[in-house]
Amino acid sequence: MGMYKESIDFAREADREDTLSEFRGRFWFPELNGKEARYFTGNSLGLQPKAVEKYLQEEVEDWKKWGVEGHFHSRRPWFAYHEFFSESLSRIVGCKPSECVAMGSLTANLHLLLVSFYRPTKQRFKIICEQRPFPSDTYAFHSQARFHGFDPAEAVVELKPREGEYLLHTEDILRTIEEHKDELALVCLGGVNYFTGQLFDMQAITEAAHRAGAFAGFDLAHAAGNAELKLHDWDVDFACWCSYKYLNSGPGGVAGIYVHERFSRRTDIPRFEGWWGHEPETRFRMEGAFVPMEGAGAWQLSNAPVFTMACHRASLDVFDAAGMDRLRAKSLKLTGYLEFLLKKIIEEKGPQSLRIITPEDPAQRGCQLSLIFPAKGKEVFEAVTQAGIIADWREPNVMRIAPVPLYNRFEDVFVFAEVLKNQL
Ligand SMILES: *Cc1c(COP(=O)(O)O)cnc(C)c1O
Question: From the CB of 190, is ligand 1 less than 6 Å away?
C-alpha cells in the first residue's frame, strides 16, 4: 500500500485495494442522525451479521416442526450443537478443536474455570491480575478468594503501571510473578486490556507462571477475534471470552472457553459438573457417576442455548470466510492509519491536544486505540457523535476507538480524524 497519506483520496484508494472490503456488506449498521453511522465500538458490541436472521429463523422453524425430536432430527441437531463451533473457534484462539467449546457466559465461565484452576492452599493462595481489569473480573477474583477463606487484599495482587504511566512493562509483570512465586496459585490477565488496549505477551507470562509453579489463564474478551492467538502453542492453561464484542454474536450471546488438552478427562482436578459435560455416548442414560467428555466440553453444564448459538454460527461463518490472518493483516494497516493521522494532529496542535495511551508497537495492541484528551473533555466526544460517528467515552477524558477490519473502512478512519482535528 505504500506510505500513508493524510487525504480522503488516499483513504478511498486503500479501501478499493482492500481484499476484505466486501465483508462490510455482510453487516447491519445502526443509524445516527438519519444516516448510516461510522461505527467504532466493535470492542463493546459488534455489529449484527446479516445472516443472523436466517440462522435464527431456521432454529425457530425446526423447533416448530420437530419439538423434542429436534435434538436429533433438526438441520443442526441440538444434541451436538456445541460441536458446530469448535473448529471455527479453534482457529480464532489458536488451539485444537477439542480444547475449546462455546458455552455459558463470560463471568460465569471465569468462575467455573477458577473452580478448577484457583485452588489456594495456605502456602499458595495468590492471584496476580491487572490493576484495573474489567470490573466483573475483579469481582470474580475477590469473591473466589473470599469463598476459599482468604482476604482479597492479601490474595489478589494487582499489577500496577509505573508512576505516571498507563501500560505494564512485560519485565515488571515477570518480576512480580517471580517475587510472589512461593505463594502464587494463579496468574490471570486480560489478553488485551479493555481500557488501554494493551496486548500482553501471553507466552512469556504463561512461561513465568509455570516456572513459579502456578497456572496461567486469560480473559480474552478483548482479544478473541481481534489479536492473533496461539493458546495451545503458548501452553496457556485456560482462557475464556465473550462473543458479543469482536465476535459479533449479539448482546449476552453464548461465550466460550479453552482448556489445554493436558487437563482432558482428568478426574483429579475439581470441576463443577453438569450433564452436558458428561461423555455423549451415555449422557442421556442419566444414571451413574459423571464421566467427563474429552476436552474443554467437560466444563459444560447445561444443554446448548441454541438461539444465541445460532447468531454465533452466523458470525463465525464470516470469520471462517475472512480468516484471522487476513483480518489481522488488515487490522494492522487500519489501526496504523488511525495512529498516523492522530500523530499528525498531535504534531500540528501540540501534545496537550491528545495523547495515545495504547502501545505504539503493533505487536502489543489489537485494533483499538485509547485516546486521552488532556485539555478538552466531553465536548470533543459530542462533536464526534454529532458527525455521525459512534465511539466510546470513559469519564473523565478517555475515548476508545476500535477500527474493526471486518467492517470499518480507511475512509471511516480518515473522517473520524478530520472531525477530531477540527475540534482540537
Ligand atoms: C466485556 C467483559 C466482561 C463482561 O462479562 P459478561 O459476563 O459477558 O457480562 C468481563 N470481563 C472482561 C475483561 C470484559 O471485557
Answer: yes
